[in-house]
């Protein structure tokens, strides 16, 4: 069975074609700094490989859809219902699903929702102190980037030869962290929406909701106006004043003396360091920290900054090892191991989709 896995991030589109269950890679591609996803989808090339199904790393459809499902009208309705909670993601996936429905009308489509990996988070770590009606309407912590954090958990165990108390740092245009206790997610920074937690490229991180109400009343802004500001002009872009909030651009600007860019990077690094400490407490200790995502995997400077000052936890980064190498690797093997990983969300999605799609086993007497 050949599965096409289009991975639509907030600023990128990656895809893989995998033969399942062998997991043989038949093709792949990547588009960066994407602003027209329909156009990018049209540029996907399968190289003549027949596609038996398309599986998406879908984001948010509320409490009813937190696993992996064949896409039907119910899934689409839930994605649309929770569009206000994930405007930068659900709109993209709704458009992509429609595009594939039109171009491959007889091909099964599968939604592998990001909160699935976080189903093991205890209820006490998922509940908000809101009125009961809010919880009845689905307001709770869901967690996202589940495919990436699951890959990190499994790959780190392979490299280290054991399950560990691990903090997974998915740092990119969209960033989150996850406390993983021996393969199980026990906490994560994103909550009800992908807006929360760490600062993202153009989306704010944690924010006092009363600040939002204050600004709406002061300026007479509508919900749509505020949503647009916080989804497209917040985060590292809002802090630095650099359009797009790409860390690569911020690092160049900071090196040239841009004070706001340097301050935005300090904010980001501080949030990562603080969360590593908090998650160490949540798990009763720490054995490993893994960095992945476009920033986490590729920026040795940022990895070093995030680890600096955490020696009291047993983190001692090997400066030379941190600077060299590529792909999945251990960059420091002290009391607390530090890893740099090239995440493979597409593989996680393919495995989950195959479980839904695979033909039933036939037992012969």
Topology at a glance:
Elements: E1 2-8, E2 12-19, E3 24-32, H1 37-42, E4 53-56, E5 68-70, H2 73-81, H3 87-103, E6 109-112, H4 132-136, H5 146-160, E7 165-170, E8 176-181, E9 184-188, H6 209-219, H7 223-232, H8 235-240, H9 247-255, H10 259-283, E10 288-292, H11 293-298, H12 300-307, H13 319-323, E11 329-333, E12 337-340, H14 345-357
Parallel strand pairs: 1-4, 4-6, 7-10, 10-12
Antiparallel strand pairs: 1-2, 2-3, 5-6, 7-8, 8-9, 11-12
Helix pairs in contact: 5-14, 9-10, 10-12
The CA-CA distance between the termini, in Å, is 26 Å
The number of strands is 12
* Molecular shape: globular
How large is the radius of gyration? 20 Å
Oligomer: single chain
**Range of strand content:** 15-25%
How many alpha or pi helices? 14
Strand arrangement across the biggest beta sheet:
3-2-1-4-6-5
- Largest sheet features: 6 strands, mixed
Please identify the structural class as seen in this structure. Answer: alpha/beta
Mean pLDDT reading: 94
Helix fraction by DSSP (H/I, runs of at least 4): 25-40%
Secondary-structure element string: EEEHEEHHEHHEEEHHHHHEHHHEEH
Contiguous low-pLDDT stretches (5 residues minimum) are none
């Amino acid at each position: 069975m050949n599965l096409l896995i289009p991975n639509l991030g907030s600023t990128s589109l990656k895809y893989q074609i995998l033969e399942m269950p062998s997991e043989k890679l038949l093709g792949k591609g990547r588009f960066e700094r994407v602003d027209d996803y329909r156009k990018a989808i049209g540029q996907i090339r399968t190289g003549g490989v027949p596609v038996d199904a398309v599986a998406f790393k879908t984001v948010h459809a509320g409490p009813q859809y937190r696993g992996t499902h064949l896409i039907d009208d119910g899934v689409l309705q839930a994605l649309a219902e929770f569009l206000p909670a994930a405007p930068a993601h659900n709109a993209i996936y709704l458009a992509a699903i429609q595009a594939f429905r039109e171009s491959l009308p007889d091909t099964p489509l599968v939604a592998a929702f990001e909160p699935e990996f976080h189903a093991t988070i205890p209820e006490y770590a998922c509940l908000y102190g809101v009125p009961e009606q809010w919880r009845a309407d689905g307001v709770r912590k869901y967690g996202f980037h589940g495919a990436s954090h699951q890959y990190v958990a499994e790959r780190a165990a392979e490299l280290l030869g054991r399950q560990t108390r691990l903090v997974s740092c998915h740092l990119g245009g969209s960033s989150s962290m996850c406390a993983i206790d021996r393969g199980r997610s026990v906490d994560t920074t994103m909550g009800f929406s992908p807006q929360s937690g760490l600062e993202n490229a153009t989306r704010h991180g944690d924010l006092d909701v009363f600040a939002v109400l204050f600004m709406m009343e002061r300026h007479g802004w509508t919900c749509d106006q505020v949503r647009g500001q916080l989804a497209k002009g917040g985060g590292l872009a809002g802090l630095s004043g650099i359009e797009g909030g790409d860390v690569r651009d911020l690092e160049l600007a900071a090196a040239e003396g841009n004070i706001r860019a340097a301050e935005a990077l300090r904010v980001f690094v501080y949030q990562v360091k603080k969360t590593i400490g908090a998650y160490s407490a949540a798990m009763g200790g720490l054995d490993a920290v893994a960095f992945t995502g476009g920033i986490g995997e590729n920026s040795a400077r940022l990895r070093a900054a995030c680890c600096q000052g955490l020696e009291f936890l047993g983190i001692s980064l090997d400066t030379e090892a941190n600077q060299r190498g590529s792909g999945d690797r251990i960059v420091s093997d002290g009391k607390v191991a530090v890893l740099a990983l090239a995440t493979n969300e597409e593989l996680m999605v393919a495995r989950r989709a195959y479980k839904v799609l695979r033909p039933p086993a036939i037992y012969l007497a």
